[in-house]
Amino acid sequence: MIELSISGGIAEVQLNAPQKLNSLDAEALTQLGEAYTQAEAEGVRALLLHGAGRGFCAGRDISAVDPSTDDAYAFLSDTVTPVLRRIAAFPAPTFAAVQGACLGIGLGLAIATDVVYVAEDAKIGSPFASLGATLDSGGHALFVERLGAHRTLDLIYTAELMSGAEAVHSGLFSRAVPREELLEFTRDKARRAASGATLAFRESKALVARIRDERIGLWESLSDENRAQGRLCDSADYAEGFAAFQAKRKPSFTGK
Question: What is the value of pTM for the model shown?
Answer without folding.
Answer: 0.95
